[in-house]
Amino acid sequence: MSQISITQLFEDNKEKLGLVWNLGLEYGGNHLSNDDTSCSSQGLIGHLNFIHPNWIQILSNLTIDYLNQLDKASFQQKLDKLAQSSLACLVVADGATVPELLQSFAIKTKIPLFCSSSSSLDVIWVLRSYLAKVLAPSTSKHGVLLDVLGMGVLITGDSGVGKSELALELISRGHGLVADDVVEIHRIGPETLEGCCPPLLRDYLEVRGLGMLNIRTIFGETAVRRRKNMKLIVHLEKTSAADIGSFERLPLSNLDEEILSVKIRKVTIPVAAGRNLAVLVEAAVRNYILQLRGIDNTQEFIKRHEQEMAGDL
User: Fold this and answer.
1) Which residues are known to be catalytic?
2) What is the mean pLDDT of the segment spanning 159-166?
């Protein structure tokens, strides 16, 4: 379950949005979770709405002007209606002054109240993008995530099959490391998975016999990436030279692996003595890039073969 505290939301965005914590500092430990927001009919964030309230309500200067024009009874009636919803926090934007009734409402309902010098549209735009990432469905996978030719490639396989050694070879060939051993994966869009590294392991690659290698220190800044959209899974399968012939030479259908309800293209590469795995991974990436452009080498070869058999070539 992905979740974030109101305090963390404030700290991560206070400089960008000019946020000031007006009231409810003691309630900063309240959490906003993916489970709560996904199961609720409420919107995540938006301008003040009494009919379809949001978890985070943004009040612009126009909204404040409207509320100030109401008589006290009408103002209180609207606040009472707002109290029936699930609120995470209130943000008064545009540098507007917070009405006294709204301050009393925040204290009574124990809801944090922020003020921002930024426009309400900027607040919504920044916080919506921010929350979409931190509250995105997530999971973790064992493997190595690399940036190979601009594509996020997750290398998987049994322990000891050579994932880290392959990653080191690819890094030495100019590709970039995102995460080793534990890859945190977030679904940031309907069909988009983003992989990143836990802070503890960032920049490090563990290689048997060498220990922990700081890739940033050894290869430089360009050898590491903070995050990368994952597009391809390369699974290493250990096999003997005698058994390598059992693998399908011309796969007629593509393999996919589903992660967080998103299908990712998967390629299985048999591992045996003498095979240059780094070259094979690069070739797999180039081949998939061509497939994304509508060029399928296997299908073109099969078509050529059929034409030859029919005597039409």
Assistant:
1) 142, 163, 181, 249
2) 92
